[in-house]
Amino acid sequence: MILFWLGVAVLTLIAALAIFWPWIVTSKRQELDQNHMNVVLVKERFSELSQDLQENILPADEKAQAESELKMALLEEVKDNEEVNEQGQGQVPTVKWSPSQWLLALLAAVSVAMTFASYWQSNEIVDIQNWLKAQERMPELGERIVTQPSESLTGQDYQDFILGLRTRLSKNPDDAVGWLLLGRMLASAQNIDYAIESFDKSLAINPKQVGTLVSYGQLLLLANTPEQIVKARRLLAKAATLAPNNTNAMGLLALAAERSGDTAMASATWQELAIRIPKDDPLQATIQQKIASLEGDRTELQVALTLDTAMPSLSEFSHLFLFARNAKSTMKMPAAVVKQVIKQNDTSFPLTLTLSDSNAMVPSLNLSSLEEAVVIARLSRDDNVQTLEGDIQGEMTIPIKKGMSQSISIQINKELQ
Which of the four pLDDT bands, split at 50, 70 and 90, describes residue 128? Predict the structure, then answer.
């Protein structure tokens, strides 16, 4: 960075000399021009005297006297100029600028200022400074985020850590654990596409990295599209095979099997997980609810959706989200989520969607675990379930009847600000 600014200073100096050098030497050029003009005038006068002599206008003795006077006058003029130059040595010559020269100087200064401003913006100097700062904070942030998580962390702290981690991985791209950590950080920041890319790079380096398989599978389950659920199931099955005692991998695998419609495998996996965890583990109650649901006691909501005619057209949105969360808690984590892509010229409204325990995002929080739920249907312009200005939604609060199917109707009639 120091070399860059030195280079800028040198180039600016060269440019300034190129612009102002003609004005620096103006006084010297004027002096030479004056002497040359005096010589030319004397020569012309000599020619005139010779002409007068030939035409008998001027006697020879007067011509000689006139020539002598001209030579003396020229010598006196040159001598006066030399004395002025000697007196001015060691002093900075005074340069008088015309209005046009002042205007040119002003335009040059403005041009230099605009050049620096444009360079500052186009090259994102502030971002570069933030990048340098993030590099310096990496050891501290790594301690607070990874080793001993701190509640005092801010969003900027996470952004700085992600930036620093990306820089390290650019220098050491074969670090599978580094790509795993970056993927988890990006997933937490809801940067799904880059998180998936990071997990893919981690698995390309170490296909048997159990942490990557589990985190990647969990992210795909959150995305909750049919293709991603199939991929999640494959990744989690591999993780469960590599680490049979990893209860997190097993629970997510059961959830993936349930969402993909394989109730037999889902039930078997839940029962296997129930055996592997302690009997007094609070997760046992959730697992038993899952097993009961898969065996026939199914808690679900049949939600009929309609769109208010006063709302924007369906074609303005790309995704439909239907989700339920605990009405008695401030936690906004959904207990069940269904996401559906809206295709061009889609006229599917009204339509009916089903929410059940198979749509849970994590095994310990599902529809059956709620006593009262807020059910929300939202049309969004992107694939992020987070609230955005311009999205439209409808909602309803209902009691949950465990092991039973309920039918409700929701009209999407509110634009979010």
Answer: very low
Distance of CA 132 to the CA centre of its chain: 16
DSSP states along 297-360: ---EEEEEEEE-TTSPPGGG-SEEEEEEEETT-S----SEEEEEEPPTT----SEEEEEEGGG-
The 10s digit of each residue's pLDDT in 198-255 is: 999 999 999 999 999 999 999 998 877 888 999 999 999 999 999 988 999 999 999 8
CA distance 203 to 210: 9
Distance CA 258, CA 288 (A): 14
Candidates 73, 71, 52; CA nearest to 61 is 52
pTM as predicted: 0.49
Give me the residue spans of the domains in the chain.
Answer: 134-294, 300-415
Count of residues for the chain? 417
Residue 135 CA to residue 27 CA, distance in Å, equals 55
Q: What is the per-residue DSSP string for 32-48?
A: HHHHHHHHHHHHHHHHH
DSSP reduced 3-state for 90: coil
SS3 98: coil
Burial class (CB in 10 A: 0-12, 13-18, 19+), 255: buried
CA 318, 323, 230, 261 dihedral sign is: negative
207 three-class SS: coil
User: Looking at domain 134-294, which of 3.40.50.1450, 1.25.40.10, 3.90.180.10, 1.10.10.10 is its CATH number?
Assistant: 1.25.40.10
Are residues 324 and 374 in contact, defined by beta-carbon separation less than 8 angstroms? yes
Cβ-contact 202, 167 below 8 angstroms: no
